Structure to design on (260 residues):
């Protein structure tokens, strides 16, 4: 029988992912520890953000090698890079304008909602992936991972919400929803990978 | 659901990648179907049956 070209375990995506998470959290905590203000925090967070590029590239290479890539998945990854960097740029711009102009009224609303726009694009990207993906197994797998992320988000938000109501823990901003969901998605992907399915 | 995909593929000396290419799906999909981790939809099952020139029930078997 012809060779099935069973993939050899490639840890590059996981290592890049780990480097990204460690660098982002490390820089974030470091900035807070150093007492940096909003803009400087954004500036020092930029280099770790660049780790997203090798992370996505290695994920795509791994996908090609393991036979679990598709044109829709590649477009989804490209959109992922676009919204991630747009998000950082929009946040940087919003914080800068807010610090310098101290806007009020409608302008403040506009500035405040600006960083959320790339997230709207991200949600649209999720929808487009599910529409464009013609490989039903890859689609089912992604939906399973996304639902795991959603489940984690619902549990964390509910538990934290009640802890907050009883004044046990500090308030957490609701924009943390996307990172928590993304962590859930990543954990589900890693779990799938470790199980070899 | 069990299936005879691996045997049918072996008879033709096709790799999983060859079959995936013919079905226009990922190799992971073929692997998942073969190993019973994923049951294909009816349209994909029909495509598989057409490719091998067999009725669906000759490829996919009840547990």
């Amino acid at each position: 029988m012809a060779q099935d070209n069973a993939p050899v375990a490639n840890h590059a995506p996981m290592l890049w992912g780990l480097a990204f998470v460690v660098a982002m959290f490390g820089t974030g905590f470091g900035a807070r520890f150093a007492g940096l203000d909003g803009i400087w925090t954004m500036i020092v967070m930029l280099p770790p953000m660049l780790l997203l590029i090798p992370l996505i590239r290695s994920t795509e290479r791994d996908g090609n090698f393991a036979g679990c890539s598709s044109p829709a998945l590649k477009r989804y990854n490209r959109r992922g890079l676009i919204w991630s960097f747009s998000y950082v740029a929009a946040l940087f711009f919003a914080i800068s304008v807010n610090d310098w102009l101290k806007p009020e009224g409608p302008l403040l609303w506009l500035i405040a909602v600006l960083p959320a726009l790339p997230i709207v694009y991200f949600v649209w990207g999720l929808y487009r992936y599910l529409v464009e993906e013609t490989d039903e197994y890859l689609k089912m797998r992604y939906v399973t991972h996304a639902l795991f992320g959603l489940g984690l988000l619902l549990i964390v938000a509910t538990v934290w919400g009640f802890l907050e109501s009883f004044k046990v823990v500090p308030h957490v901003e609701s924009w943390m929803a996307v990172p928590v969901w993304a962590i859930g998605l990543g954990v589900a992907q890693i779990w799938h990978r470790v199980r070899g399915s | 659901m069990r299936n005879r995909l691996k045997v049918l593929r072996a008879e033709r000396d096709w790799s999983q990648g060859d079959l995936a290419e013919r079905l226009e799906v990922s190799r992971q999909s073929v692997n998942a179907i073969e190993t019973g981790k994923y049951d294909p939809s009816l349209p994909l099952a029909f495509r598989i049956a057409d490719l091998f020139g067999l009725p669906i029930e000759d490829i996919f078997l009840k547990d």
Observations:
- The interface with chain A takes residues 9-10, 13-18, 20, 24-29, 31-33, 37-38, 40-41, 44 of chain B (CB under 8 Å).
- The domain at 2-52 of chain B is CATH 1.10.260.40 (434 Repressor (Amino-terminal Domain)).
- Chain B has a mean pLDDT of 93.
- Chain B has one domain: 2-52.
